[in-house]
Input
Amino acid sequence: MPRLISPLVLALIGLFLFGDGAYIHAKARLAQMLLERAFDRSIATGQAVKPWSWADTWPVARIEVKRIGASAIVLEGASGQALAFGPGHIHQTADAGERGTAVYAAHRDTHFRFLRNVVIGDIIDVTRRDGRHFRYRADSSAVVRFDASGIDATTQGFELVLATCWPFDAVTSGPERYILHATLIGTDKSPTAPATRASVAHSTTRHTPVVASPKDSP
Amino acid sequence: MDTYDTADDDEHPMLNRLIKLGLLLLAQGIAVMLMAFVALLVSFGTSWSATTEQASLLQPGDARSGSLLLKGDGAITEAIRLGIDVDITVSGPTLRTRVTQVFRNPTQDWVEATYVYPLATGGAVDTLKMVVGDRIIVGDIKERQQARLIYEEARRAGQRAALTEQERPNIFTNSVANIGPGETVLVQIEYQEPVHQSGKEYSLRLPLVIGPRYNPAPIVQSVDFRKDGSGWGATTSDPVTDRDRISPPVLDPAKTAPVNPTSITVRLKAGFALGEVKSHHHNVKIESPDSTTRIVTLADGAVPADRDFELTWKPLTDKAPSVGLFRERVGDADYLLAFVTPPGAEQATEKPMPREVVFVIDNSGSMGGTSMVQAKASLAYALSRLQPTDRFNVIRFDDTMDVLFPASVPADAAHVGEATSFVSALQARGGTEMVPAMRAALADKLGDTGMVRQVVFLTDGAIGNEQQLFETITAMRGRSRVFMVGIGSAPNTYLMTRAAELGRGAFTHIGSVEQVEERMRSLFAKLENPAVTGLAAKFSEANADVTPAIIPDVYRDEPLVLAAKLDKLAGALEIRGRVGDRPWSVTLPLQHAAEGKGLSKLWAKRKIGDAEVARAMRELAHEEADKAILALALDHQIVTRLTSLVAVDKTPSRPEGAPLKLSELPINLPAGWDFEKVFGERPQIPAQLRERHADAGTSPAMRRPTPAAPDAIRLPKTATSAELKMIAGLILIVLALVLFAFNRRRPLLTNAA
Output
């Protein structure tokens, strides 16, 4: 009998670990479903709606990349708690559609797994809690350290940054972050107004040029 | 382990058994190592990020990839030199500050410099002057977008231009375009600010550092490096190689070429005989031409601006003047600034009124970590300060709520002990349902009018339904006073300020555990000394637009400060209120008001502040609030979120194409300026400078993110351990199966043997 104990214990620990990992994914999926509902209600009522009664955060925006069929509901704040459920809107950064840079961060293996498929030139749609809709175009990407992100939060432009951990396929966490930068090209109300300043090419920066084929993506 | 037993039981096929035993041990060893590996990775991950957060300095490797030109603590590179001179004139209740920034370009290129700097929150920036050579160009107030357009246009046309913009209510940016090689441009801004008074101490604070909490604008940005491969300045050759040398101390540009010193002069005309005048963080030289005037200068000349400059002064006599009334006529309106220190202190301290205090502590998930520690420490301190005659209760909430005692209990040792252990056992978890807790705290069960009723609310305010909370306070406040204690590094200040205002209490912010005692003590000084309540101001003849519209309670030693716009300067201002249980009133005849300076701007700045709050609180529609702010700002020439100052030197300076070859020709400095002081041998200031080349083809989009302020936005950890756990789990399961299969086969092997 004792010879059965060690494989049994091993199997149990293995199952527990596996289950724990799977739980993270399950939680991320389920939360997004609940968030989707709460967000729809937010838009309808114009009030911040909590996805579940004991939640410490609330949905603030929906990000969509229609080309690859990806979508996620962004939560207010980027605490570890919030990130388990959805991408987080980093405090101290602008709201989407406002002057400045809106920064959303999420886990590379759950909500922002799709970032690896987003290429320069892709259209990123952001719907805000108040129902307003903003259209961004991805124009550059970079790999930076978490404490030297280079994000200009108070920029004069209307910008968006999606951030996640880098490299995508690593198993452990590291200091590097992948940031995808996008610039506003239109809103639902006045699709031309902000576009004038956003559409100026900036070919002399170290960024990837605006017009780029999918091959240019990292 | 069971290995010895099995060996004793059965000794026959010894060798065989030993091999199996070895295999078993090996397998277990692998499993243990795997577990250890997993554990190590998990713990390694956290400790790793902890150490890197401390050493947030830019690493040379990163500098290569971006276009950073400076070090973590804000040292500035050789590129553009900046000197700062601050001249503060205090005249009675207001102070006017003139900040002169000297931009000197030692390089061979035409450059544009942008300087981000902090100012006092209450400061109204109204003047921008640019001095180029012997010409002075005075800036105009314009709508923000329009000002930027004018500036960009001038920049493209090769004209010198300066632009002052507000980034945050207390963070401003100065941009200067087309500074020629070797040229110096002076940019001067002026702002008006009220003097702060507390008790008999008057003070001014000159912020010289942007606190990390504001995460302000980024720093040196030089996006296009194509043209300057030839090198910048004399001491270091190429900015890119320079960047690599920034973090090691060897060639720190701040040491090889001292830049950005700050000199400060304060002309203090208090309007009364002065007693002690003290600078808290800097060595100063104080001259006293007469009893009411002091001239304060820095003892060591210019200093690196690594901390705020704070100056306090007291009147010579023991009693501070309790009333101040100042007026200014601008256009066809009169502006009035009134300071009244109610007589609270002396009478009240004799007989402290018994109080009923309800403490509310937020133990929701967002309070996790140091916030919870601070909140608990604050509450523990507060409990220890209660008097036996007081009554108290404690409420804790997350998405659930507990009220410790059914009704408020006397603050005797037993009850306080019970409360203390209740508080120390709290854990941060769950959501933030603030409204029920506030409702419970405001429920006045005792209804004992002989007691002052106070609610002390400790939270980070991380909620979205602020409006609901405000409605609750307005509806249920009764005779209770609500004191908000903001916990943590980034509490929701709007919520706190507004809730305290509506609850006629005060807002205290505690940002670190070290601040707990000091801040809580001053809060308790307020709590223990009954305030002057129910204040109202009335003008007997004039029609007045008064700010603040709802006058908050005034606590011990604090003056009531009112700003008003009047249609005529006649009659009197009557202020009524209650000190303890007695009515109190004071009448100030307006014709006795003394001439003051810049009062209209202070009034406008406060009105703009009110409108900004109303906008944030959604009491005013965004468009409506913006319209009101814009009108006030344009009327009173103040830089706001929506307006900027712009100055353009119409004489084109930079010729198209060929860059002007100018040798270093320092311009004439304005009178009273000491060049050595400004460009003295002093290390850097942690002010922030970003620059780009004044290339006519440069588009606004060029200022885009790339480089980083190491203390700018910190990206959160965005990798879960899910995959690691799943992989480790799978390995273990496979291992278990292998072992199991091996065990199944073993009896067969033994039988065969």
